[in-house]
Write a structure and sequence with these properties.
By secondary structure, the chain is mainly alpha-helical. It has ten helices and no strands. The protein starts with a helix and ends in a 13-residue tail after the last helix.
Length: about 200
């Protein structure tokens, strides 16, 4: 077998481990999920998990690293930020519910709760804050995060009918405008959506 084929096989096995771990971590939590169970889901020896990731904790970290290049998304500037952000969220893969449940369960786990919080800070809040201009950057980044995670939660876990699939156009427009206002340094003015 050539080196390229081996590399492809290793990448496929690694991706399968991450997918299996995401599902098990999201269903049982970190402490109740063993390396042997993850390996069995993929049909490989448990030693491969440590070989590819180093430890169960490092595998958990790999499961939480965003699939979207958020710093690149933020670096494109304020123009059209809301629509770009919504597009990235709507285009994310079908394992989103697993990722959200992993985050929720991790918050209650002493061993990895801090890991999830640190990754969220490093991969999302910090690059978002650094991309903002004007005053109150950290506060605005936090409000943007609240809107995004709330949308993600209600679309992938609680699955509100208005957010299933492609969201209602009025909801999408309101959310996009709210994200744009916060990104550009303004204040989100409350207004009633037309369908209410």
């Amino acid at each position: 077998m050539c080196a390229t084929s081996r590399s492809r096989d290793a990448q496929a096995t690694r991706a399968a481990m991450v997918q299996a771990a995401q599902r098990l971590f999201s269903e049982r939590g970190y402490a109740q999920t063993g390396v042997r169970e993850i390996a069995a889901e993929v049909g490989v020896d448990a030693a491969l998990v440590n070989r590819y990731f180093g430890s169960k904790r490092q595998l958990f970290e790999a499961c939480l690293i965003p699939r979207v290049d958020l710093p690149a998304l933020f670096a494109k500037g304020a123009q059209g930020f809301g629509e770009r952000m919504l597009g990235a969220l709507l285009d994310k893969p079908s394992d989103d519910p697993n990722l959200m449940m992993m985050l929720l369960l991790a918050g209650r786990d002493a061993e990895v709760g801090s890991v999830a919080a640190e990754l969220y800070e490093r991969h999302f809040l910090q690059p978002l804050t650094q991309s903002l201009q004007g005053k109150h950057r950290r506060q605005r980044a936090t409000l943007i995060a609240l809107l995004i995670t709330g949308f993600w939660m209600h679309r992938s876990v609680l699955v509100l009918p208005e957010l299933r699939g492609s969201p209602d156009l009025t909801v999408r427009r309101w959310l996009g405008e709210s994200l744009d206002a916060l990104y550009q340094g303004g204040i989100v003015q409350p207004r009633v959506c037309s369908f209410l």
